[in-house]
Batch of 4 targets.
Target 1
Amino acid sequence: MRRQFYRLIRDLHLYLGLFSSPFVLVFAISVFFLVHTWLPKLTPEVSHTRVVSVLPFPGDLLTLSGRPLIDALRPALEKVDVHGEVGFVRYLVKEEKLIIPVTVPGREMIVTINLTNREATIVTREAGLAAAMATLHRSPGEHAPAIRMNWFYMQAWRWLADTTAYLILFISVSGVYLWYVLRAERRVGFVLLFAGGLSFFGLAYALSH
């Protein structure tokens, strides 16, 4: 029974680790571009502007706020071929304009809608692969929970990010178990665990004082 349990944990440790490795790589590599701004971008940034007229708006648009407002603006955004995660909606009262930033990993779009003539100006910036990974790294989490995760693919990414966190937790615990079962590796393992724990708690103590 014990041997069967060991084999089960070993196989799960291996295959779940392989499944989660692409997501871990995205988070790991993107850290370098988030922390070290001097790193060269993987692809050059390109931007362009276009204007689209005759947009559909509901009659009660300006009475809405939060997620209902974003949902009401979706038909207009789809008409101008803008898809992605809406960051916020800013209403400029005097100019009668709406400013809507929309993000797709690797692409940022600023949609300025003129409510008077129902015209939209879209400024698109192609940010490249490095920016895409940084966007994916920052996106999961409760940032402006009332409106965020309003794009299906970003919701799916959050689910995968949560799953990856749980898998890493399982891989860590199962790795400790597999190491402990292998008696020949216990001494080296204790040294590495002690060194890792000392480094972590030492750094945590230094940052909190």
Target 2
Amino acid sequence: MIPGPPGRLRGVLNWDPSDRSVPGDPLSLSYRQPGVVLTDRFFTVPLDHGEPEGETIDLYAREAVASDRAGQDLPWLLFLQGGPGFGADRFVGRHAWLDRALREFRVLLLDQRGTGRSTPATRQTLPLRGGPAEQADHLALFRADSIVRDCEAVRREVTGGAPWTVLGQSFGGFCTVAYLSMAPEGLSTALITGGLPALDAHADDVYRAAYPRIERKVAAHYARYPQDVDCARRVADHLLTHDVVLPNGYRFTVEAFQSLGIMLGAGDGSHRLHHLLEAPFVRTSAGTELSDAFQEQAQNLLSFAGHPLYALVHESIYGQDARPTDWSAERVRAEFPQFDAAKAVAGDAPVLFTGETIHPWMFETDPALRPLRETAGLLAARTDWQPLYDPARLAANEVPVAAAVYHDDMYVDPGHSLRTARAVRGLRTWVTDEFEHDGLRAGGPRVLDRLLALARGEA
């Protein structure tokens, strides 16, 4: 262990002092942004918590405290990012919900295993594990159960054993429900926003509920921007009749174009999608082509290079028994023929965008995923998933819990969320259509303020 700032420890794994890119660099110290003091924190945890003496990995977290309270003994709030596969938000100063949290908490922004500055899991690093079978076995350790055990190891080091408040956004909320199932003694309060999972639904159930919600979001977008109906049809027709490869090597298919509808789950997503579609074509000496500007924007939105775990383990977060997920989103989509872009273009129907769904073709089109397609297939075929939630323990819950449920959340089914809310003893919900799935980010301090009030019986 290498000492960090006074009173804190940072774990290191195979640290090479000549490599300043490796977590554990002793030059990482506290630093300031407007109104906040930040400290880089590093921890070492078992790769497999079932083998605590075995291989270890690094976790990175950024500690944040209000600059005028940096020397005070404050309660801790752990933030669990949505995803899976994304590192914690990189705030500048006291942005969004962080401002509200810093009024009373010392905040830990954790890069969950495999993300951000924690030990990575990407096309570049996974071959170090071996072939696709070994890689799939490795990635099976990157679900909510392992993340909760990571959090408990970190908590014991950070708080000295005292319980902390956990704020879970989206997949971070899934992890929080797993936390309530596995280690409620580690929690003083649990706050969940857009992330109450179905306790026993298979991935097929999740996507059968999702596609109708996605269709509603697309219809609402076209009602707001009717000019986008023709534009989307023109782009789809072009992609059906041309082989388009984006500058980064991404094969831009019509299905990839449809997947840009993932933006519609955010509060400003419809507007951003419209801006993308404003001028997708340009006239050239060779005829009409997709403009460089449009292609540049599309590749930035489509590439998984910065978050490959999102694609690799996405459906596994719904694995709870011996049933494989078996590319659920792709199979279930076939039950909704209105999403077939070729049929839409051939007729007079609008082209429907899709949403938060992962498909096997992504591992052919995206150069960041292409080397991992066999690994992804093995994960999809896996039949040894273990339950992530404990209904009996949740029914006896004693931790104050509050959850924001967004009325027509595109990513997490509100019906599933409300059934889970009824299954967790003492959980209080705030059901709202004021925000979309990104309410925690878009709502500034309001969402966190409301959840704290609910958990404390003040609202």
Target 3
Amino acid sequence: MGVKLNGLFESKKIKMAELSGKGIAIDAFNWIFQFLTTIRMADGSYLTDSKGRVTTHLNGLFYRSVSLLENRIKPVFVFDGKAPKFKKETLLEREKTKEEAMEKMEHAATPEEKAMYMRRIARIDDYIIDSSKELLDYLGIPYVQAPAEGEAQAAVLSQQGKVFAAASQDYDTLLFGAKRVIRNLNITNKKKVSGKGITKGIFPEVIDASYNLSKLGLSREQLIILSLFVGTDYNKGVDGIGPKKALKLVKEKERTELFNTYDFRAVYNINEIYDYFISPNTIEVNGDLDPIKIEKDKLIKFLCDEHSFSRERINQYLEKLKTEDNSLSFYG
């Protein structure tokens, strides 16, 4: 869910061509959850293979990844590790929401209503994570296993210049120090509206952290405090204070005074949470993060033989990676 900073940051709509040749750190869980929520059968169930194993995530990951490579974008997927202790309450709330959706699904009056609630109970388990990584291995797309928050790791890759930007729908990546954030990185320029069976036009947009902080007259440290006022995954925020009022407060008063004056509705010490945003648990990533050779035979076996994908359709998409001299980009 992340911090709600809509309307505070100025973004710039861009064309996919502007990202050609650039590395993008992608919040893997964010994307996989999107796939699990939106790519469903008419009755709301997951796509599955002949053995009944979920393939919804592989479907979304393969086709979108090929589209990124076709546009000469260099994706790097970042997977979440163990959630920090501060996130416990948020995770419990999310689980409660899923349980409520499960109950409503069981008592749904129509197939459409049942399908709607089925989309709300998506979960990312070990099988989904492991099979996603295996697919990326065969596609030659690098990934990083973060020790904790994937968004924090993606932000560090941005800070270090390992990638041009971090891709996420949430603003939390900016709190962790990303130089740039790409939102709506969807090649089709369409986004499904969950539960409504419709799509809407949508285009990629880039948020430049330095530009926006300068425009707002804030430091990154002040942005973190502002976000704690509004509410993050680690605290509920101060009652009655939205982004605009919080912006005024952080400019007028020091952090110590603000933390001692207001109730940020945090289970843990607010200074601890602040410090975690400043210095999250991440790892050092050495070497470049460019795509490497696609293992076509293993990829075909994995998707088509093991998971029941159409061989003709998979080959059709791989053909899109051919260059003008009829060689295949990223593999020989």
Target 4
Amino acid sequence: MQKLLIIDDSVSFMNDVEFVLKNEFQIFKAENGKKGLAVIMKEDINLVLLDLKLPDIYGLDVLEKIQKEIDPLLPVIIITDYGNVQTAVKAMKLGAADFIQKDFNREVLIEKIVRAFKQRELNIKLSALEDAIDEESDKLIISGEAMRKIEMDIEKFAYQDVHILLTGETGVGKDIIAKEIHLRSNRRNKLFSSVSLHTLSENLIESELFGHEKGAFSGADEAKTGKFEAANGGTIYLPEISEINEKIQLKLLKFMQYKEINKVGQKTGKDIKLDVRLILASNKNLDELVEQGKLREDFYYRIKVVNIHIPPLRERVDEIRNLAEYYLKKLSIKFNKCGLKFSEETLKELENYYWKGNVRELKNIITNAVLRTDDNKIITPDIVPVRNIRQDLSIKNEQYKISLQKFKKKYFSDLLESFGGRINDAAEAAGISRQALHKILKELNISDSDKQD
């Protein structure tokens, strides 16, 4: 049964609405704005009937808080009287779904509620469509074996009420996977909030995540709703979990254990109960951070229960071609160069390249190539940065192999000579078997007389 909240200071009116709708909805009632907002934060409310004249907060301010800080897609129907229709119309311009007068007709009210729900569904679909065509919003491309395994994990854990840790190098696609987990979960119609911790000072992180009370610190002239409260019922994504200090680690640990937060400056015992899923990510070795004392051990073990690791692109060569063609198509549309294709030579260049910057670097290089070309095909000269770096790495790799071979040949020649050609003694000194030493000497073209003691 869907949940309907009535915010009105008239008890008799709320009782009237409850009487006519109690068979269709689970009814919640609040006689002022603050209590109404508290109910929305605590319960998974599906629709709000909101009076404009409240004893504590003006109705339009309540509407604004719902729209901006809680759930912009939550349908709100304004309750008004005959003399306040103009204000109700203003409320609709600010995002209210509809308005109804206090001497309502049951059928009219039901019709407006049904219409509001249909509009919400339409808005959700529209929001999803906007995400899909957003030039900065990339799709999860499943083509290689590694990503197929990751997709299986996404399917396995998306619907389970567990927090998830994503690990992998910068640029491997952790942000895309986090969003995909949210979209495949039963929270997909609620807020997905990504908080870039590296852009915030340590002093602001706590307030940004958990909010603060008025006067909590210098400059806190009014109360602030944090990201956790705003995303109630949805998902919070923290992409740089290694950046947070011990105090924030403890607050996150408390939330994961008890589903409760407390705002900065909030009185003891006033913790706020929330239903939020956490997806955390790191491009650093968390085991090392624990050893260095930068990450609490209890926090680490709590967040690593479900860990999805995304390998670097250079280990997913079987995906490069499909990823490159996906980005080429998308960027061709963006820059009005439709019909662009890769030459086969170019695709091989991309597959042979050592992708230190991972998928992000691949996208940037293809962007550069699309902008550079005046033809209908991306050819090797269009991706010169790739070719030059790859050749340079190839030369360095070959130099390393030659140097290693020279070192090994000198080492084993000197070793054998120092023991007068006695294989048993040389093998024992090298810490290998007699047969292994024979094999190495043969590979290095070192003659041995196999002298015995």
